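tmp note - Transcription factor BTF3
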Amino acid sequence: MVMGSTAVPLVVLARKKKVVHRTATADDKKLQFSLKKLGVNNISGIEEVNMFTNQGTVIHFNNPKVQASLAANTFTITGHAETKQLTEMLPGILNQLGADSLTSLRRLAEALPKQAADGKAPIATVEEEDDDVPDLVENFDEASKDEAN
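out:
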């Protein structure tokens, strides 16, 4: 044993990093605070918002909360979003389609007969559609003239 030596044992403890779990409400509060600083205003009366993607899908918001700040060129859309195919939304969104979306729709319409030929998508033939519509067997103009006489 050595006298006079004062050896102190070193103990190194691993420190754990404290993990902070953020809730969605905390994030929403931060977002609302940031939007308030931008000076956004609520826009009322918006029934639906549709965002058209390049892949031919539509991000659809039904009864969203819409806010805008024209000075900051910022718009926010909050609410429940659904991703739908463009064909699911037809014909109700035809008046909302821009030139790019109309081109996508045209390409989609051209692709349907090709898929039907490959057996991927069933498509109704003209004969099947005619089963529901009766054939016209008489001329109504002549019948109305006969009734008038």
